[in-house]
Write a structure and sequence with these properties.
208 residues; Diaminopimelate Epimerase, Chain A, domain 1; 2 domains; four-stranded mixed sheet
Length: 208
């Protein structure tokens, strides 16, 4: 994580949040996580499924005793498990829709954990990026969702994800913050809810 965002990068992101919030009564929180799930179940699931099929050809086409077949089944399970445990392979085994669902769940958890649901005007927005899944989410409170046109956040997420894919991590975050801030400024200009209630710095989470 440290190699992705330097101290200078984090300072740029913090400044972007501060600038955006000066033009709105809304609150923006930026969070980046190493991953949204370990997906450790995936190697065990694949190894178990493959091992289940091992006995059938041995029963039909060989005269092996049951003990040998059982040992062969255990060996296949162990080999497949060892081959699929490395993180890149583990992530590859999990369907994209499952990974996106895990990112969404983690984003909602962070929305609550960072107290975005407690802002005075219900105008909190979370920009969440999960690096392992290469996916982002924007979660907005009820006060914002009622006014911002449908599809707005997805457009910003698409650009943010593309920036991360191209290696422009800091630029992607800054641009997303500016885009979100622009929409907040339009619908929630500075007013009675101007207190800076939440942190302006980038929040970096570890694994899982």
């Amino acid at each position: 994580m440290g190699s992705i965002f330097s101290e200078t990068d984090e300072h740029r992101i913090a400044e972007a949040i501060t600038r955006a919030e000066k033009a709105t009564s809304g609150e923006i929180v930026a969070v980046v996580a190493a991953e949204s799930s370990t997906y450790l179940y995936a190697p065990f699931l694949w190894a178990s499924a493959i091992a289940l099929f091992v006995p059938w050809p041995l029963i039909v086409w060989t005269w092996w005793p049951a003990a040998w077949i059982y040992l062969a089944q255990l060996a296949v399970f162990a080999i497949v498990l060892a081959a699929t445990l490395p993180r890149p392979i583990r992530y590859w085994l999990v369907p994209r829709w499952i990974k996106r669902a895990r990112v969404h769940r983690r984003a909602v958890e962070q929305f609550l954990a960072q107290n975005l649901h407690t802002t005075a005007g219900r105008t909190g927005v979370l920009i969440f990026v999960s690096l392992a899944e290469r996916h982002a989410e924007i979660v907005a409170d009820a006060g914002i969702e009622a006014r911002v046109p449908q599809g707005t956040w997805q457009e910003i997420v698409t650009r943010l994800t593309s920036a991360f894919g191209a290696g422009h991590h800091t630029e992607g975050f800054v641009s997303a913050i500016e885009d979100v801030g622009g929409h907040l400024a339009t619908h929630f200009p500075p007013g009675s809810f101007d207190a800076n209630e939440l942190p302006d710095h980038l929040i970096v989470l570890g694994e899982g």
